[in-house]
């Protein structure tokens, strides 16, 4: 598995700072924000310097009920090729629901939502991961996500779910320790237990990020400093295995470059602390094994003669051997021992034992145990209906499905609406300028009755159309500016460069007279 080292999430807002940061071995870029034919100059310069760039997808929805979209897979593969990446990553999440599979309206979450840890969901996820693996030119790694809500009737822990996913598909894992912390606060899940159940040999790299707590709920914001509990989980992980790469994520509220460098320093120190603990554990285990061999050699001659002086000398030689193994080799070269242990782990030592400890995970199905097509479709339909009901409650105000925490669903619904408002303001920055202080209130009101059915750019246009249809905004000048903005962007090309058909013009006039 390729060693990546220490990295940071590349974002346009901090591109210059990232280029100047010392000790950056690699960067990760959001795949959907990169155009293969027009790579940002900053990424080009980083690549020329030999800095690895990994595309990180957010829109495949591998945990959804539908098969992965071929167009999205093709686009992701194109970005991999353009960036010359050694691997590509996505999320264990669903981002849309409804449609033909469930004969219900198509809905977009605009956010990564958790999949239920059930057999149905696992079967669908494994099949979707295999489809993606066949379409992508490099290895795929998938990330555990943060969640505000829990599914009722789950059949596995997160560690067991990830273990079996990796076991059945061979997919690599992107472990986000900040998400483990989020799930600890929000869902009462023990990060140490999750780490103990993970297939550590499958880890491709690790994410570290910040967030904040409000009213007992942890929000994985990627806009705040990395807190101590997240660094502690990273140390715990590093005490178990040497991760091939670790990356700091920051998506908003970017601090000064010096602050980002301090966070990277804290991440490196957490890794070093974990590495020391890992080597100590390995030395103790090596010493115990050597002493056991020494004691076994001290039992006496194989012919059964009574122990005598020779036995004492045997014990002495055995003790010296143990001391030599523990001090003469490993203590002087802990790095070599750590690398040797890592090599054994990558080779697969201990996997069977971990499988036995995790119950259902111990029964390995293998990559070729595919469900029958009729079973696969039935599982997809069951999962699709469940996900559509939850997403409809989150974005369309329908009743909360049985078994969910209604308060938490409400918190998640408000968070989704707030994120929609924020992202639309980014993709259409003219709207907050035109509407001023009324933008956010107006958008949140619109979101309550208008679920997102396409991307954020389409959402911005639909929002503007909704306001204009209602004769808003009240200020005539603002309404004229909004109308011009909408007309300029609502067709296949700008008005100034496209013919306007009479029917389309007449339709718009009727709409915009109101």
UniProtKB/TrEMBL annotation:
Pfam families assigned to the protein according to its UniProt record, in alphabetical order = MbnB_TglH_ChrH, SCO6045_C
Where is the SCO6045-like C-terminal domain positioned along the sequence? 386-468
The UniProt regions of compositional bias labelled Low complexity, in chain numbering, are 297-316, 324-333
Q: Which residues form the signal peptide?
A: none
Q: Where is this region: Disordered?
A: 297-342
Tell me which NCBIfam families the record gives: PRK05409.1
Name used for this protein in its record: SCO6045-like C-terminal domain-containing protein
Q: Which organism is it from?
A: Streptomyces violarus
């Amino acid at each position: 598995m390729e060693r990546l080292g220490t990295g940071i999430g590349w974002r346009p807002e901090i591109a210059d700072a990232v280029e100047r940061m010392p000790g950056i071995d690699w960067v990760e870029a959001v795949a959907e924000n990169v155009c293969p034919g027009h790579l940002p100059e900053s990424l080009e310069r980083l690549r020329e310097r030999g800095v690895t760039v990994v595309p990180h997808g957010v829109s495949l929805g591998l945990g959804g009920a539908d098969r992965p979209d071929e167009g999205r897979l093709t686009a992701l593969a194109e970005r991999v090729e353009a960036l010359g990446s050694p691997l590509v990553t996505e999320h264990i999440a669903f981002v849309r629901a409804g449609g033909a599979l469930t004969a219900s309206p198509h809905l977009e979450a605009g956010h990564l939502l958790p999949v239920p840890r059930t057999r149905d969901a696992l079967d669908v996820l494994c099949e979707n991961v295999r489809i993606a693996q066949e379409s992508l030119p490099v290895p795929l790694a998938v990330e555990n996500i943060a969640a505000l809500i829990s599914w009722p009737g789950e059949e596995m822990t997160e560690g067991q779910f990830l273990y079996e996913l990796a076991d059945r598909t061979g997919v690599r894992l992107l472990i986000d320790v900040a998400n483990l912390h989020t799930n600890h606060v929000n869902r009462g899940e023990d990060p140490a237990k999750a780490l103990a159940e993970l297939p550590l040999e499958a880890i491709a790299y690790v994410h570290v990020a910040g967030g904040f707590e409000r009213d007992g709920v942890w929000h994985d914001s990627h806009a705040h400093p990395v807190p101590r509990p997240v660094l502690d989980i990273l140390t715990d992980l590093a005490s178990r295995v040497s991760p091939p790469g670790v990356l700091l994520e920051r998506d908003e509220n970017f601090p000064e470059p010096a602050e980002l460098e301090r966070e990277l320093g804290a991440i490196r120190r957490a890794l070093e602390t974990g590495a020391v603990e890992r080597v100590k554990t390995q030395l103790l285990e090596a010493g115990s094994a050597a002493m056991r061999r020494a004691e076994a050699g001290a039992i006496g001659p194989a012919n059964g003669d009574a122990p005598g002086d020779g036995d004492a000398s045997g014990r002495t030689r055995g003790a010296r051997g143990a001391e030599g193994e523990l001090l003469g080799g490993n203590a002087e070269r802990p790095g070599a021992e750590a690398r040797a242990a890592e090599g054994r782990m990558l080779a697969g030592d201990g996997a069977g034992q971990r499988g036995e400890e995790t119950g259902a995970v111990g029964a390995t199905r293998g990559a070729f145990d595919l469900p029958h097509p009729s079973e696969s479709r039935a599982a997809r339909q069951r999962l699709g209906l469940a996900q559509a009901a939850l997403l409809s409650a989150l974005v369309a105000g329908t009743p909360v499905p049985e078994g969910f925490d209604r308060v938490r669903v409400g918190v998640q619904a408000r968070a989704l609406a707030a994120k929609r408002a924020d992202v639309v303001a980014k993709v259409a920055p003219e709207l907050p300028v035109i509407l001023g202080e009324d933008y956010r209130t107006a958008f949140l009101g619109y979101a309550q009755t208008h679920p997102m059915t396409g991307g954020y750019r389409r959402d911005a246009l639909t929002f503007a159309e909704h306001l204009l249809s209602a004769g808003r905004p009240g200020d005539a000048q603002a309404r004229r500016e909004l109308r011009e903005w909408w007309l300029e962007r609502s067709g296949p090309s700008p008005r100034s460069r496209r013919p306007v058909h009479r029917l389309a013009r007449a339709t718009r006039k009727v709409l915009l007279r109101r």
